[in-house]
Amino acid sequence: MVFFAWKGYEMKHIVIETEGLVKTYRRYRKKEGIRGSIASLWKREYEEKTAVNQVNLSVGEGEFLGLIGPNGAGKTTLIKMLTGIIAPTEGRIDVMGYYPNDLKNEFKKQYAVVMGQKSQLFFELTVNDTLRLFKEIYEIPESEYRKNRDYFVGLLGVQDLMDVQVRTLSLGERMKMELIVALLHQPKILFLDEPTIGLDAMAARQIRKFLREVNEEKGTTILLTSHYMEDIKALCRRTVVISHGIKLYDGSTDQLFEQYQKNRKVIVTFENPVGDIALKTDEIRLTGNEPYKKVYEAAIHRTGELFAELMRYNPKDILVEEEDLGAVVERIYHAGTDFQRTEDDCESDEMTEQNRNGKGGLS
Ligand SMILES: Nc1ncnc2c1ncn2[C@@H]1O[C@H](COP(=O)(O)OP(=O)(O)OP(=O)(O)O)[C@@H](O)[C@H]1O
C-alpha cells in the first residue's frame, strides 16, 4: 500500500499506540433448515472473520481523531480492543501505558466510552440520581463531582432536565446525559462510537459544539467514529479511514476531503409538483425524482450551475449534504491501488515503511 507523509500534525505525548493489531472472530455457521440443524449436531462449521487487520495507530494526547469507514469496516472492533472489552488476536496495543484487556481499575478510571446505540444510563432513575450513582462508581470526591457536573450541565444547557426520569428523555437529551455521565470523572480519553446517530440537525450541532469545547478546554483526547461526514469535518483535524479492517488513510481531514470528496448531495423541495429537471451532464445526476422533491448528486464545481437551474422552478427549500462515505472510501481505495501500479519506486517504499510505523498518510 502507498503512503504520503502528513506534516500537518506534530505528535505530542502518545496515549494510544498499536502495532500490527489484528482481531479475528470465529463464528459458527449453520446451513439452512432442519437438515442443517441436525447436521450441525455432529459437525459444527465455523468461519473466521478478520475484522481488524494489521492496524498501526498512534494518537497524541489532546488529539481529536476521526475514525471512519463503511459498515462492517472494523471501527467498533478497534474501539473494543482499545477499551479492553475484547482482546486482540495479534499485535501490540498500549493505551496510556496499559494493555487494555487486563482491565485494571486504574486504567478504567482514565477513559470513557459512549456508544450511540447502547446506553449506560439507568432508565428508572432521575438524571440527578443517575449522575450520583456514577459519582459513587468512579469514587469522585464531592467537590470535584459538583464542579464537573455543573460545568458539563451548563455547557449543554440541560439544567431543567435534572429531576426527570431518564426513560422520558428524547434521543438528543439522552445522548447529552450519556456524555455528561462519561465525562464526570474527567477521563483522559473519550471514545465515541456514533454519538450523533439518529439525532436531528440541531441536537447534533449542540453535541459537536460541546465536544469541541471539552477537547479544547479540558484537553481530553477524543476518538470519534461517525457515518456523518459533517461530524468529522467539523471536529477532527486528523482522520483515519478503514475498510475491511485495513487502514487506508491516516492524515489531515482537510486533505482527505479536498482530494477524495468530489460530489455533494443536493435535496430540493417544491411547493407545487415539478416534472423532470435533469441537467445534460454526467457531473450532475438526478438520483431521486418525486413530484415535490428531487435529489441530485453533483460535482462540487458544478453545484452553482445546478442551483441556478433549480431557482427557475421556485423551490421551497434546498439542502446540501456531504457525499456518502462509501463513495469517498472507494475513491481512496482506488487511488491507493492506482498509485501503487504507477509509482512503484524507492519513495513509496520509504513511505510504506513510515506507514507501518503508524505515522500517517494514505496507506
Ligand atoms: N462478535 C463477533 N463475531 C463474529 N464477527 C463479528 C463480531 N463482531 C463483529 N463481527 C464482524 O466483524 C466485522 C467488523 O465489525 P465492526 O462492528 O467492528 O464494524 P464497524 O465498522 O463498527 O461497522 P458499523 O459501522 O456497521 O457499526 C463485521 O464483518 C462483523 O460482521
How would you explain this protein's 3D organization?
The chain is an alpha/beta fold. The protein has two domains: 14-24 and 56-259, P-loop containing nucleotide triphosphate hydrolases (Rossmann fold); 263-322, Alpha-Beta Plaits (2-Layer Sandwich). 36% of the residues lie in helices and 28% in strands. The protein has helices spanning 33-42, 75-82, 105-108, 127-137, 142-156, 171-183, 201-218, 229-235, 253-260, 303-311, 325-342, 346-356, and strands spanning 14-29, 45-60, 64-68, 90-95, 111-115, 189-193, 221-225, 238-243, 246-252, 263-270, 284-290, 293-299, 315-322, 361-362. Strands 5-6-7-3-8-9-14 form a seven-stranded mixed β-sheet, sandwiched between helices. β6 (189-193), α7 and β7 form a beta-alpha-beta unit. The longest helix has 18 residues, at 201-218. The chain is globular, with a radius of gyration of 23 Å. 33% of the residues are buried. The model is unreliable at 1-8 and 338-360 (pLDDT under 50). Adenosine-5'-triphosphate binds next to β1, β2 and α2.
